[in-house]
Amino acid sequence: xxxxxxxxxxxxxxxxxxxFTALYDRYHELIHRYIARRLGRDLADDLMAETFLIAFGxxxxxxxARFDAAPWLYGIATNLVGQHRRAEVRFWRLIExxxxxxxxxxxxxxxxxxxxxxxxxxxxxxxxxxxxxGQRDVLLLTAxxxxxxxxxxxxxxxxxxxxxxxxxxxxKKTRHALGGTDPRGTGETDERS
Length: 193
Fold this sequence. Notes:
Blueprint: H1 6-15, H2 21-39, H3 41-58, H4 70-82, H5 85-98, H6 111-118, H7 121-130, H8 133-143, H9 149-156, H10 160-177
Helix pairs in contact: 2-3, 2-4, 3-4, 4-9, 5-7, 7-10, 8-10, 9-10
């Protein structure tokens, strides 16, 4: 049996609201992780729930031609995060001061990445806190959300070219703040910085 697309789930939920729980089951962990990555766990539970409440309320306006609802949900979550801009900057400044990231659980598959990133965590947090909101949104939707430029454009309601330029600026500023080191923790340096 073929799994239903997100659009099919949303369409079914218009006449049978309980069908929307399938969309929640599919994406709640990803959205929670994304929000926690931006604001910490304290706000993540509430904002993840609010993301799905808003999505449920707006489901009749969803473009059913879009089979994947992830960009739509990330867009709602990003807007909610934006309403907590001060909390987000405080979160990044806390990491900058302490070097400890309270949002990340150390599952086995990310331990190596965490150890590699530990040395530059403070600098990275400072760089993220200093980015303009639009650049930080695009960078974190790419890094924490795993969205493509097209999905980010859909999520934020901006042109794909704007996504590319914001991402380019954010990466350049982040690399500069890390002394030319690649912020993805590859250990590479960028001579162009």
